[in-house]
User: What shape does this take?
Amino acid sequence: MDARTSIVARCRDNCGHGSHLFSVLLSSLQRIGAAVAEVEANPDWVIRASRRQAEEIMNAGRSGHYGEATDWLGLTKRASRASGQAQEWQEYLDALLQQHRRKYRLMPFLRELV
Assistant: This one.
């Protein structure tokens, strides 16, 4: 499941089409779609932008949005691999796993990225 499909599915399952949350998630979907288009052309930008988006969610402890953070981190992973930075990605993920180890709702999402 790609990032766009994942967000739409989560939104559909959890909030319904007419809700404010649906609008917010669709906005995220558009931003993620724009980042996906840039993975090959500008991977360093995608890495910076997607990390920033994910870190805002995780650092704020917004557990209802951890799936969205995972989608952003999936883009970070993809862009890191596309630019030959797989080792840096793994080190970053290891640091996130350590930093957020007490956030029991976040950890399964992060483990998906290993």
Summary: The mean pLDDT is 81.
